[in-house]
């Protein structure tokens, strides 16, 4: 691609008064991007950014005065991408909990951008509205949730947690004769929120945004990372006001699943609301082999998960699910005269999330679910879990490498020495292109997390990664 600095003529011309279809200037760019995409997917890439120091030079400077032609801009963006991409799409990418993007996800996401639908109300995109109805039904069935469960799509699990916890707050305050929407939170009745020791920071963030930051109690966890139900019962017995309990389905560090049947029983015995932060672990319910680990999932009141983690849709795709439709809409829904359409032809997606305007991300979710089906999702999940067990077994045999928590799903948590040692080994792995892993702290001990979440990862990538990990570990400890 080539092009010279130009002027306002770079802006696409208005179509004018014509009944003829107009092909916008620069439409060939789509073909060029498709050609680049083919090369990108077929080229082996290192597991670290190749030249991040060039990013400011490539992207920075003053805003252009007259602009640049489209090919020049696209070329510059690709150059910056090649310099600064992180390896989130590779089969040896095990950092954080970042899934890859299935080809059907990428292709359908291109269509989402091409069609440029505003998925706010039915009138702005009947396509998105109907697709959300379908995905809501499919996911309710896939996860084994109550038939009346409703779904809202968001940018990620943080905002999914936010709307679910807003519904929990609404429900519990309403039971005390208080309407948070109308009366606010300043003089509201007391609420108590109980969370686990390893609750994800996004849940804490949402509780603070909802004015519940000072009402949080911590429940102890065992060495396996699971919530201690005896301690939960003790705290619930003495909890003032309405009760909200937040449990986990797949903890970030070790992938543990809280004892859901017992937690649900304790919560509901006290008239409470149980919310599950299930950012990645919820997808394990698609597997008949793994579903027993999630027994009791259906007894919660709300759930939050991500498509862009273990389902491997492109970023971003947060999913909020709630078993109390009316309360959910009361908490986050709204109306305005200019948005009232007559007659109501179908679902208004904005009534189930924070955002009004939103791209039609549901189409990528629909395409991924339609392509994989229940069996395809189960196969991907089981393959990742097998790879995690393989990695844990191969690495924990090595003197000086300790498995710090049982492998439940797709997370392996390893102790490999003190903090300097851990950092050096991680830096070696991440810089030599063999894999990408990230550090954490577990019970005040430095650790490394391995999260197997990519659709391409399986036993072969596990064996490759284990060999690279052992080389780095032995080289560090050799005389």
Q: Could you walk me through the main structural features you see in this protein, from its secondary elements to its overall organization?
A:
The chain contains 14 helices and eleven strands. The chain is of the alpha/beta class. The longest helix has 35 residues. The N terminus is likely disordered.
Give the gist of this structure.
By secondary structure, the chain is an alpha/beta fold. Helix content is 40%, strand content 12%.
Biggest sheet: strands side by side, in what order? 1-7-6-5-4-2-3
Proportion of strand residues: 5-15%
Count every helix, treating DSSP H or I runs of 4 or more residues as helices.
14
The shape, in one word, is globular
Rg over CA atoms, rounded to whole Å, is: 24 Å
Write the layout of secondary structure elements.
Blueprint: H1 28-41, H2 55-59, H3 70-84, H4 103-115, H5 126-143, E1 150-154, H6 157-175, H7 180-183, E2 191-196, H8 201-209, E3 216-219, H9 229-237, E4 242-248, H10 260-269, E5 273-277, E6 302-306, E7 318-322, H11 325-332, H12 362-396, E8 402-403, E9 411-415, H13 419-431, E10 438-442, E11 445-451, H14 459-477
Parallel strand pairs: 2-3, 2-4, 4-5, 5-6
Antiparallel strand pairs: 1-7, 6-7, 8-9, 9-11, 10-11
Helix pairs in contact: 4-12, 5-12, 6-8, 6-11, 9-10, 12-14, 13-14
């Amino acid at each position: 691609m080539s092009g010279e600095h130009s002027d306002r003529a770079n802006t696409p011309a208005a179509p004018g008064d014509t009944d003829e279809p107009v092909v916008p200037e620069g439409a060939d760019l789509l073909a060029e991007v498709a050609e680049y995409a083919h090369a990108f997917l077929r080229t082996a890439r290192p597991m670290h950014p190749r030249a991040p120091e060039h990013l400011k030079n490539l992207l920075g400077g003053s805003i252009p005065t007259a602009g640049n032609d489209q090919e020049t801009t696209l070329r510059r963006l690709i150059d910056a991408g090649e310099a600064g991409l992180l390896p989130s799409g590779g089969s040896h990418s095990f950092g954080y909990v970042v899934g890859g993007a299935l080809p059907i996800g990428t292709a359908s996401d291109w269509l989402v951008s091409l069609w440029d639908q505003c998925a706010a109300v039915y009138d702005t995109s009947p396509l998105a509205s109907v697709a959300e109805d379908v995905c809501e039904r499919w996911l309710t069935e896939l996860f084994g949730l109550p038939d009346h469960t409703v779904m809202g799509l968001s940018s990620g699990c943080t905002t999914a947690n936010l709307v679910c916890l807003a519904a929990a707050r609404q429900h519990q305050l309403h039971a005390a004769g208080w309407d948070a929407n109308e009366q606010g939170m300043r003089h509201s009745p007391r609420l108590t929120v109980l969370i686990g020791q390893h609750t994800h920071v996004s849940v804490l963030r949402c509780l603070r945004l909802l004015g519940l930051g000072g009402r949080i109690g911590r429940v102890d966890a065992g060495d396996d990372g699971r919530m201690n139900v005896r301690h939960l019962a003790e705290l619930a017995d003495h909890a003032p006001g309405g009760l909200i309990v937040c449990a986990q389905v797949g903890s970030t560090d070790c992938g543990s699943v809280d004892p859901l049947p017992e937690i649900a029983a304790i919560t509901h015995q006290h008239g409470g609301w149980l919310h599950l932060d299930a950012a990645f672990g919820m997808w394990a319910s698609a597997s008949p082999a793994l579903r027993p680990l999630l027994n009791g999932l259906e007894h919660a009141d709300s759930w939050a998960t991500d498509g862009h983690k273990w389902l491997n849709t492109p970023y971003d795709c947060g999913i909020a699910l709630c078993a109390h439709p009316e309360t959910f809409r009361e908490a986050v829904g709204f109306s305005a005269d200019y948005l009232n359409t007559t007659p109501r032809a179908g679902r208004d997606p904005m009534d189930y999330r924070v955002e009004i305007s939103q791209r039609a991300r549901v189409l990528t979710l629909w395409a991924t679910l339609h392509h994989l089906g229940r069996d395809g999702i189960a196969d991907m999940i089981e393959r990742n879990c097998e790879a995690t067990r393989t990695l844990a077994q191969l690495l924990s045999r090595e003197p000086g490498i300790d498995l710090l928590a049982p492998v439940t799903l797709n997370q392996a948590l390893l102790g490999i020495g003190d903090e300097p040692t851990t950092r050096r080994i991680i830096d070696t792995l991440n810089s030599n292109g063999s894999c990408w892993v990230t550090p954490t702290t577990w019970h005040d001990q430095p650790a490394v997390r391995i999260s197997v979440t990519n659709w391409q990862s399986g036993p072969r990538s596990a064996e490759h990664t284990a060999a690279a990990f052992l080389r780095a570990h032995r080289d560090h400890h050799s005389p």
